[in-house]
Amino acid sequence: MIGDHVLAGYVNDAGGREALDLACAMAAVTGGRLSVATVHPPGLPAAAGEARTLLDQAVDLLDDRPADLHVQEGRSVGRGLTVLASRIGADLIVVGSPEGGARGRIGVGAAADHLLHSATEAVMLAPSGHTPPDELDRLTVMYVRRPQCDDAVVRAAQAAERLEIPLRLVTLAVGDVGAERLRDDLALAIRLAVDSAELPPEDVSAELAEGADVADALDDVDWQDGEILICASSEDAAAHRVFVGEVALKVLRAAPCPVTVLPRGYF
């Protein structure tokens, strides 16, 4: 299940603290293991010392919540987190948004950009200013009829069953598209979700989000406080790696809640 071992990438800014808060919340909800890491450039003893000091600051923010702590060497923060996640068996990497971005929206900094184009684990991004609620209310999958999205529906349905929360499937209808065909695709995806997990049929819903562009379409649907949006990687992604396409990146930037991107072939 997504979140059996959560790795938070911590930096000393608002985004780092929000990533840590979100990672703690996810580990609490899933009952998973929590790891926290700071990354420093290779070959610089002073940088390694600064990273250890930052990690000490993170400990103070954990409020006695159990976590494994790691100082990781890496040529970039994103690369260091990916290497560490693979080594310790984390299945979800959580990072925050850079300071100065729009409040309530996700900003893609250098670390997130690297992870969104090469990570081997699921990647979750916290919107700027996000405060996670105590409980999750719903999982939403951004759905387009293709194998990667079908896989995401199956995994999300299984997670929703375990967490005992509803599952929603959303398809974007941007511009002049065949809405009826998209509704037919959603109907098939609902059947897939119900067949993949022991979710009550009434706990699986679907919506067609219509608008002039991606941001407008996302504003067409309601979002709950404890919502997580799940996106599949692009068809261009290598096996078992994350790679966000152009539309998914627009979705990520416009979403009002944390977004998780699954590697291609996630299982």
Helicity level, as a percent range? 25-40%
* Structural Rg: 18 Å
Taking strands numbered 1, 2, ... along the chain, how are they ordered across the largest sheet? 3-2-1-4-5-10-9-6-7-8
Strand segment tally: 10
Strand content: 15-25%
User: Can you give the mean pLDDT?
Assistant: 91
Which shape, going by the Cα principal axes? globular
Q: Distance between termini?
A: 8 Å
Structural class: alpha/beta
Q: Regarding quaternary structure, how should these chains be classified?
A: single chain
Order of helices and strands: EHEHEHEHEEHEHEHEHE
Low-confidence parts, pLDDT < 50 over ≥5 residues? none
Helix segment tally: 8
Can you summarize the main beta sheet? Answer: 10 strands, mixed
